[in-house]
Amino acid sequence: MSSPVIKHVEAELDGGMSEQIVIGLIALSTDVVTEYELRKMLPQDGVSISSTRIETQNPITIENLRGHAHEIAEAAELFVPRESVNVFAYGCTSGSALISQEALEAQLHRTAPGAKLTSPMTGAYKAFRQLGIQRISMLTPYPDEVTTAMVDCLSAAGISVASCASFHIENDYEIINVSPESIIAAGEAINSADIEAVFIPCTGLRTSTIIEPLEARIGKPVITAHQAMLWDALRLAGYMQPLEGLGRLLKV
What we know:
This protein has helices at about 35-40, 60-65, 70-75, 95-100, 100-110, 120-130, 145-155, 170-175, 180-190, 210-220, 225-235, and strands at about 20-30, 45-55, 85-90, 115-120, 135-140, 160-165, 195-200, 220-225. It is of the alpha/beta class. The chain has 2 domains: about 20-120 and about 230-250, Rossmann fold; about 130-225, Rossmann fold, CATH 3.40.50.1860. The strands form 2 sheets. Strands 2-1-3-4 form a 4-stranded parallel beta sheet, with helices on both faces. Strands 6-5-7-8 form a 4-stranded parallel beta sheet, sandwiched between helices. α7 (about 145-155) links the parallel β5 and β6. The radius of gyration is 20 Å and the shape is globular. The relative contact order is 0.16.
């Protein structure tokens, strides 16, 4: 049987993805939550996510988290062409608390010179400044060693942690099983009259649906890992429109 004649047809070219804001997500190898959560939170008018992975180790320890730093450059190099990504997002809260923004950017710029980078903690620090927040309660899923390190990092940044609670989970892939309802209950339980916001770190937690219900219950802003990282990524990429349904932060 002879092969068919391949006809040559003319392609009409447009701008492709040039009008699209692309967030280059650098997620952890154990993370099956962040893309799911961010896609639920993304604006519908011209913003998308393109993802890659870096390897992470369990259990969750400070040593294992610090090991992420050297992998940032290799992950960014997988996006071709690099210019197709408007802003990179390193999707680990505890890692971005323990590794400075300067160190993360230095690694990123080895393969993506001048690229913009955010993370959950970078976004959270900016969110606290934007909303005038200095005293918080924090809910984490982490082992005590990591939660304590988070408190220390926040304190060093001028954020006082008045109270803290944790689900005490040692493996990333188990954090996904924490129900949104239990996050709301625990967030409400750590609210007090002397705090200005509740902070819920960790990109393994499913928090997109709990932000506004919890804000309504406590009457204060709720800052989460995905929300803060997305807010900062959008602003770095030039998207300034408010988003509804995702708490006070996405409206400023």
